Amino acid sequence: MKPAPFAYRDPDSVDEVLALLAEHGDDAKLLAGGQSLGPMLNMRVVSPEFIVDLNRVKALSRRGTSADGGFAIGALVRQAELEDDPAFAVAQPLAAAALPWIAHRPIRNRGTVAGSLVHADPAAEWGGIILALDARLAIRRAGAPPREVEAENFFTGILETAVEAEDLLAEIRLPPWPDGARWGFREFARRRGDFALAGVACRFEVDGAGRCRSVRIGLVGVGDTAVRARLAESVLEGEPPGAELFAAAAAAVGKEVEPLDDGHASAAYRRHLAEVVVADALAEAWEQDGRDEG
Amino acid sequence: MRFAAYDVRRAPRHANQVKHVPGMSEASTPEHRPLLTGRGRYLDDIRPADALHLAFVRSPWPHARIRNVDADRARRAPGVAAVVTGAELAGTVAPIRAEMEAGGSARYRATDWHPVAARTVRYVGEIVAVVAARDRYMAEDASALVDVEYEPLPVVGDAVSAIRGGATQVHEHAPDNVLFRTEWTSGKKDRFEQAPIRVRFTCRHPRVSGMPMEACGAVASYDRANGTLDFSSSTQVPHILRDGLARCLGISAGRIRVAAPNVGGGFGPKMQLFPEEVAAAALAVRLGRAVKWVQDRMEHLQAAFHSRDVTVEAEAAAEADGRIAGLRAQSLCDVGAYSSFPLGCSLDPQTAGVALPGPYRVPYYHYIGLAVATHKFPTGAYRGVGVPLGPLVTEELVSRIGRAAGLDPVEVRRRNLLRPDELPHESPGGSVYDSGDYPALLQGALGRAPYDGWREERRKARCGAGNGARRRLGIGMSCFVEATGMNRAVYRKRGMAHVPAFDSAVLRIEPGGGVEAFVSTPSQGQGHHESFRRLVGRGLGVPEESVRVVLGDTAVTPYGSGTFASRSMVSGGGAVLSAAAKMKERLCAVAAARWELDARQVRFIIRDGAGGVERTDAHATTGAGIDRMATHGPSAKGPAPALGSEGAASASAGDGSAASPRGAAGTERLEIAELAHLAHTPFLPLPAGVEPGLEVHAAYDPPGVPVSCAAHVALVEVDRLTGGARVLRYVVAEDCGPIVNVAAVDGQIRGAVAQGIGCALLESVDYDEGGQHRSATLMDYLVPAVGDVPDIDIVHMETPSPFTESGIKGMGESGIIGAPAAVVNAVLDALGVSPSGLVLPLTPERIVALAAAGRDPDPTS
Questions:
Q1: Contact (CB<8Å) A1/B784
Q2: B238: β partners
Q3: B137 interaction partners in chain A (CB closer than 8 Å)
Q4: Does the residue A203 lie in any domain?
Q5: Domain B306-488+704-852 is found in CATH 3.20.20.150
Q6: Integer angstrom CA distances of residue B92 from A66, B89, B272, B340
Q7: B contact test, residue of A101, A107, A262, A273 with most B CBs within 10 A
Q8: Taking CB atoms and an 8 Å cut-off, how many pairs form between chains A and B?
Q9: pLDDT by residue (tens digit) across A252-270?
Q10: How many C-beta atoms lie closer than 10 Å to residue B20's C-beta?
Q11: Would the CB atoms of A273 and B843 count as touching at under 8 Å?
């Protein structure tokens, strides 16, 4: 468990990072918190020629309220920084509620949100969170204008995203939390802190007529990427919330997901679990009756 | 020779009256302080200048012929000193081979396991070449350059297909793939066959592995001038390892020194001889340079000894009133590709067979145990070995008998548990149960729970509105016994040829009065230093701090078995106490010489915790030189939790002369420090037959096998929808005889229960049908984390074993023996199911499947 030889660079500006990526592209790996890359290097799952360490790039450590009232998370922001930030909990209650479920505190101390997203483990919580929040991902590349990718276009395949070899995921942009939105987060793992066998981040609003609006359900662990449960969302949209409706939505999830078989669980069991966590998360959201978030 | 206070067979106290002695539990042992503050010296901290680091080229195939190994590119890689193939090593290194003298019906086939395979590989991870380079990075880089040409062969992926007719043979000399078979019968079959109640249960314990925080490793260096090999290893068994290396290398054991530095957990895997260790030693000899191998976690998961992988199929019969009429069982143990050294592959089938009858009256018993070769990594010892299969199977059978007889789980156990007045009892499993109160232990555990409260919680969960269908509680219980500190007679009976089965201690008092104790059972973090210090301190009446305990170095520690099978306090401790008794005789002889008296006219006495020799020439005394309270005397400092646990006062009272402050007739007394000086000065003439100096050696073969006993109860919550199971509460009532160190005992129990929870719910070394190893990392092999283990409440009873002088019974394994059964039974209770067969671990997915078959529980119970 020793990495193969690699060259190491630690630039201190975004431009230098982009220049290095432009030069080395596929042969380079970005190092932020190192919580996925470190073990993969040690196990020689990856053997890049270059490691480009982002940790000296101060500009990537910024986090806070953005001009549109949303919340911006720089590429070097650690999970624990958000977990410990009371302003984040107020601004983004769903993401804040999910944070303690992400791995373990020592991992959150170093691990970054951007690193988790770019690594794109299909069970990583942030995949479901950005889908449930309609987040936008700000991507930079040398010689090209900055671009934004919608959350639902971000994941392109197992461990693959819209971030290409020459790209830097510079910032995660969470839109303003809608007044009165309700949310639920649930996951099930064999042990606390493990990657979830199935997990869900969901939110919806209830309009003046008592019907579900703006429903978002982001699932993790039940496919080769995090996915939105569009069928279940459509079951809920425009209907009055309640246990029966949630059961119907959960059943829809069971129909639309395509989980994988692996050493930890069969596809059938993951499908079943997806239904269970969705029903639970929707009920959790609905039970927030009367709470005015945001 | 007897140690007086243990002669007094006090009636065992009832479990629910036993309380912790204040101040004992929190005692942090001096051994742990440097370890917890980062000052321990572990294997990887041994850094000889110029050492070569090893990396191993391992087979990706479970079964293949090696066509060719091309190491040229690797040899030219930067920093590489040598690349050695199996063919190159074959001439100088003998295979690892565990012999057995199988008696009775048993039959055994040894295997030749070449440390570096030359012709055939038989498991994924088998070593085909060794790279020695300047550092481990370079060694790993170069190992990727070794080009091995394999011809894949058919694979035997599991034990069931291994014994099917026409199966591929793992070894040419084992046509049926059976490496060991034993069959025992005890009692008459009639009652079994006529009994009205018949219950069956089959259980598969997963392949698991001890997961010490520090993995394995070795540092070897060879002194060409003297022809001696210096070998450090993270081992539990320095002397057995030395013997194993000597056999493989053809060097006399006396030329090999094996030393264990601080060892970060053992749990069994570190008692087998690793092929990597043999290779490291061979390369050190061949290259004349220090060679270092530090096993990483991936290597550990793939190629540190696995354990269990046992399926037991059992059937019990009972009378209408729930009394057991008999038990029939067969175990099928998948032992992987080779029979490992030193214990051999009979370990699991033999120990499961011993354990199955449990603490119950079993008038008829028939057992067949099979060890079967497959194309997996070989198995070896892991805490508890085959013993957990006993409670796993038998406890469920007993509960089923209870249901068939209309008895609740507690009542059916009460009817079948052996009572104290029936002990000693020869179990059909072959152990002689010596001591303890099994029904009182169960009662003690239930009382502490408290059982009635748990039943009420369970009832509420079953009736809970809305949630009732989903969240269920279950109560599991597990009663068991464990033979500990097994002696030469047991290993003779088992036929295990490479376990000396005795232990030794050397005690030395220096001229200044300091005491050194050298013991053959090393510590892997259990606190042995502290416990032995306590035994010596109390035994000789010297301050515990003045005792230096030295363990785990064959250059200085006397010959013995090492640390495994719950033997250290029984066997190592027995050796220490035996040496202390000899030391007292020596002190008496020196004092007698000083006073020019006959040795019978002096006596060793401990006063206020201080040992000394006093004149008794005004009195006739008996038992010259043997103190009748020594092991129970108060220590010089602090509270003195007596081994017999009634405290120093009553122990002293056991000896009239010692209780009186100036009691002895002679007023002259020589303290140990004075005697130490006298024994080492040329000015004291010693009579013929009295040796100068103060050094004694005692080898100790326990005269009998102490059998620990315990009852565990668990309260487990199950979510029927997700299949998640959580152990909410856990109580252990245990009897390991007189406790030397409560903190150590409690720590052993808690750690082992955690591991047992792992076996029940989480852990499994997986191979696919094609023989590929799938548990590559700790994200695949799940060990219990802090959130998976509840507070564990422990109740102690202390019934001394009548079979040994100290009465101490071993307890290193008991937690993991009882816990899988208690947890599994609780899950089944929660779900209200009695499946005919069960495969562990009970993953959420398996629990969901079980829940689907569940019946509606009786909401009133």
A1: no
A2: none
A3: 2-3, 5
A4: yes
A5: no
A6: 72, 6, 21, 20
A7: A273
A8: 58
A9: 999 999 999 988 899 999 9
A10: 14
A11: no
Which residues have a Cβ under 8 Å from the Cβ of B586 and sit 6 or more positions away?
A: B679, B690, B691, B694, B696
A271: which chain B residues are within 8 Å (Cβ-Cβ)? none
d(CA B217, CA B136): 13
- Could A188 and B722 be called an inter-chain contact, meaning their C-beta atoms sit closer than 8 Å? yes
Strand order in the sheet with A144-150: A63-65, A71-74, A168-174, A136-141, A144-150
Give domain B43-153+215-263+269-303's CATH superfamily.
Aldehyde oxidase/xanthine dehydrogenase, a/b hammerhead (3.90.1170.50)
Report the half-sphere exposure of B232 (CA within 13 A, side-chain side): 19
Asked whether residue A16 is assigned to any structural domain, the reply reads yes
**ipTM of this complex prediction, to 2 decimal places:** 0.95
The Cα–Cα gap between B764 and B773 comes to 11
pTM of the model: 0.93
* A-chain residues near B297 (CB < 8 A): 1
CA distances, B514 to each of B510, B520, B573, B679 (Å) = 5, 20, 20, 13
Q: Are B298 and A194 within 8 A, CB to CB?
A: no
Positive or negative torsion for Cα B298, B302, B304, B308: positive
* Partner-chain residue, chosen from B298, B777, B845, that has the shortest CB–CB distance to A265: B845
E strand map for B194-237 = 197-208, 217-223, 228-233
Query: Taking the mean position of all CA atoms in its chain, how far away is CA B285?
Result: 32
Residue A25, pLDDT score = 86
pLDDT under 50: residue ranges of chain B: 1-28, 619-666, 859-861
Q: What's residue B29's pLDDT? A: 58
pLDDT at residue B466, as a whole number = 56
Q: Tell me the pLDDT tens digit for each residue of B641-665.
A: 334 333 333 333 333 334 333 334 4
Structure tokens at B673: 């420090």
A11, part of any domain: yes
Instruction: Give the nearest partner residue to B722 out of A263, A266, A273, using CB atoms.
Output: A273
